[in-house]
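INSTRUCTION: Work out how this chain folds

Fields: amino acid sequence; protein backbone structure tokens

Chain under study, with its fold:
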Amino acid sequence: MTIEQLEKRVAQLEQLVLQIAKGNVNTIGKVDDTSNRVTAITPYTETKTAYIGDTEVVFTNVPSGNLSIFGLLSRLYRVERESDAVTITLFEPLEEVTEVTISIQ
């Protein structure tokens, strides 16, 4: 191959790379947009460990939304929400270590 042929092939390769890059910009934009939408609908969750003898679990910096509580099966408790804090007060002290999870939709 001559130098002129190589230069021509390099120029063609540059054009091809530019075309591919232009095509990927739209794809990357779509992926970013989809990622943002998924994040927007993903519920906020947080888990805390409640220990033997505890009578309350406090979560701070909790976003607003519909609250669900998991991990306190067959236990009586009261939920209070003040500003960005959620306090779960148990009517009886825990007799075992328990994972308490909140989820906000």
